[in-house]
From TrEMBL:
Family membership: Belongs to the tubulin family.
Name of the protein: Tubulin delta chain
Assigned GO CC terms: centriole; cilium; microtubule; nucleus
Function: Acts as a positive regulator of hedgehog signaling and regulates ciliary function.
Organism: Patella caerulea (Rayed Mediterranean limpet)
Length: 444
């Protein structure tokens, strides 16, 4: 099964470039810990999923379409891929114009979107024809700008119209809380509320959390988007690189299977990914990993809603309630654990079947799934990823709705949106949709 990546705006294109590099580096990894035959089979599966082998050429091509309203980032991303010499982007599958969307969702959605639709959808169609079996789309974008969010939302709606039977998963980058763009919360509310209608799932990555992982776990002093994107791509790859169900060892983690396990209800589409371990290459050399310890920490990251293993609050227990009877710990609708590396088959994961981790109406046997892959990933002898549909998004969602609503109540900057054709009712619809999503998550 193959997946097409749609890279939207500056952030989407930079993350996409990093994703294909992370994946291609993983195929070339020397510390794979399986036989050469198994390693080759794994590599072939990865290529089929993410790349297209062009007859008669050594170099593989990413199954990707790139969209931005300015050409600089796309040109740089293509060049970096080509220089790396392992993979490249397909020719003529890039769409750019001369001017960005000025961090304005309405400019992207109402003006650029309809103008670019036909050409971009032709590119997507061309990419889809190269797949023997298409499982769906992974679209990458940030919530705060104007192109990824506005044009990206429009393109996602077009994908849904033209590929009604394919899955669509979005990966969205949440802006820094302190905010680089004054209207970022408007853009985020408009994007998320629209994507909720079209996407099958939305993977949330918060720049603030990723930044902390870079500084505290990876020990990076001057953090760039490149560093942050490496963390994002480690997370995405740990979900999407081949792994199979531990029950039958046959079912593969294609988009359909992932969605089947994690998104059973259309009101709950927000997913978060937690990983362990995450450390600098230097530290990996001097570390040894044990499954019981890794899984205990990862479980507590879930319970205490922590983004990383350092500084987890161990005082929070599954089942804890506040004196007023509201939930203190993080509860889930579904969790998918992906184990990679040594001894994955014999690892005990029964602690993830604890009913207290789940909402009262989830049967843990159905809410929990485990995938395994004996081949090591990204130089880690053992590593785990936990993909959750849980209460985690409540906090960031609350934050953007509150901030955006305060601005909207004063009608601040609204004219910048209405001048491109958006109405005040469109804002209100966005708030209503997200308030409903928030209310649903609070019920978990
Ligand atoms: P316009 O600039 O309005 O045309 O839209 P755009 O979609 O190209 O904007 P962009 O993707 O730059 O969106 C800005 C938001 O994305 C801010 O929250 C940035 O912090 C974030 N961002 C931009 N580039 C990256 C990146 O490479 N990685 C990460 N993680 N975040 C990024």
């Amino acid at each position: 099964m193959s997946m097409i990546t749609v890279q939207l705006g500056q952030c989407g294109n930079q993350v996409g470039g990093q994703l294909f590099s992370t994946i291609s580096n993983d195929i070339d990894g020397k510390q794979h810990m399986v036989s050469s035959k198994e390693n080759k089979e794994y590599g072939d599966q990865v290529v089929q999923r993410f790349f297209n082998r062009v007859d008669g050429r050594d170099i593989i091509e990413a199954r990707a379409v790139m969209v931005d309203m300015e050409s600089k980032v796309i040109a740089k991303t293509c060049l970096e891929a080509k220089k790396g010499g392992k993979w490249k982007y397909p020719d003529k599958q890039q769409y750019c114009q001369k001017r960005g969307s000025g961090n304005n969702w309405a400019h992207g959605y109402c003006v650029h979107g309809p103008n670019v639709k036909e050409t971009v959808m032709e590119m997507v169609q061309k990419e889809a024809e190269k797949c023997d079996r298409l499982s769906g789309f992974l679209s990458l974008l940030s919530l705060a700008g104007g192109t990824g969010s506005g044009v990206g939302t429009f393109i996602n709606e077009s994908l849904r119209d033209e590929f009604p039977h394919s899955f669509i998963m979005n990966q969205v980058v949440w802006p820094y809380n302190t905010g680089e763009v004054i209207v970022q919360n408007y853009n985020a509310v408009l994007t998320l509320s629209h994507l909720y209608q079209t996407a099958d799932a939305i993977v949330v990555m918060e720049n603030d959390h990723l930044h902390k992982i870079c500084s505290r776990l990876l020990d990076i002093k001057k953090i760039s988007f490149k560093d942050i994107n490496q963390v994002i791509c480690h997370k995405l790859s740990s979900l999407f690189l081949p792994a199979s169900s531990s029950d039958d060892n046959i079912s593969q983690n294609d988009l359909g299977m992932i969605l089947h396990h994690l998104v059973g209800h259309p009101e709950y589409k927000l997913l978060t990914i937690r990983n362990i371990p995450q450390m600098s290459d230097r530290s990996i050399e001097f570390s040894s990993f044990h499954w019981p310890g890794l899984l205990k920490h990862l479980r507590q990251m879930l319970v205490a809603d922590a983004a990383m293993e350092e500084g987890i609050d161990w005082q929070v227990n599954a089942g804890d309630e506040t004196p007023r009877g509201s939930v203190r710990h993080n509860r889930s609708l579904a969790n998918m654990l992906v184990l990679r590396g040594k001894d994955v088959i014999s690892t005990d994961t029964s602690s993830y079947l604890d009913p207290k981790l789940y909402t009262s109406w989830t049967d843990p046997e159905l809410g929990f799934s485990k995938l395994i892959q004996p081949r090591a990933f990204n130089n880690y002898e053992k590593c785990a990823a936990l993909i959750s549909n849980s209460r985690s998004p409540i906090r960031p969602l609350n934050h953007i709705i509150d901030k955006a609503w305060n601005m909207f109540a004063a009608r601040a900057y609204v004219h910048q949106y209405t001048q491109h054709g958006l109405n005040e009712e469109d804002f209100i619809d966005g708030f209503v949709t997200l308030e409903q999503v928030l209310a649903s998550y609070k019920k978990l």
